[in-house]
Design goal:
The structure holds two protein chains of two kinds. Chain A contains one helix and no strands. By secondary structure, chain B is mainly α. The chains are: A mainly alpha, B mainly alpha.
Chain lengths: 50, 71
């Protein structure tokens, strides 16, 4: 697991997997922040949950 | 990063669309349920409520202020 050049069955090395995962996490965080803001607006301006 | 090695055992070409698809399907399902189970969301999606109300009020005011024609 420590060899950074080892190609795993998915075709990725460990640094590549880490890089992909960083981007997915960041995308999820940005999406989540926008969604949270949208839900705040929906809570304020619609009868939702009132 | 925690779980950073996930993509060594899950093919990104399978895992990424599966993840994004799950997000899309579940959020669509929740919003569709709101659309079919509330009264205010279909009204909002239909739109034009304010404009329609304004026109209706104008029409009502105009109808009240019609002066009968003199012969």
């Amino acid at each position: 697991m420590s060899d950074p050049h080892k190609v795993w069955p998915t075709g990725l090395t460990e640094p590549e997997s880490q890089e992909l995962h960083r981007n997915i996490i960041q995308g999820t965080q940005i999406f989540g922040a926008i969604a949270a803001f949208a839900h705040l607006l929906a809570y304020i301006y619609t009868p939702w949950l009132h | 990063m925690i779980y950073g090695k996930l993509w060594l055992v899950v093919k990104p070409s399978v895992g990424v669309p599966l993840f994004l698809g799950a997000v899309a399907v579940s959020s669509f399902a929740v919003h569709y349920a709101l659309l079919t189970n509330t009264t205010w969301l279909p009204k909002y999606y239909e739109g034009g409520a304010k404009a329609t109300a304004a026109v209706a009020q104008e029409t009502a005011v105009a109808a009240l202020t019609v002066v009968p024609e003199r012969k």
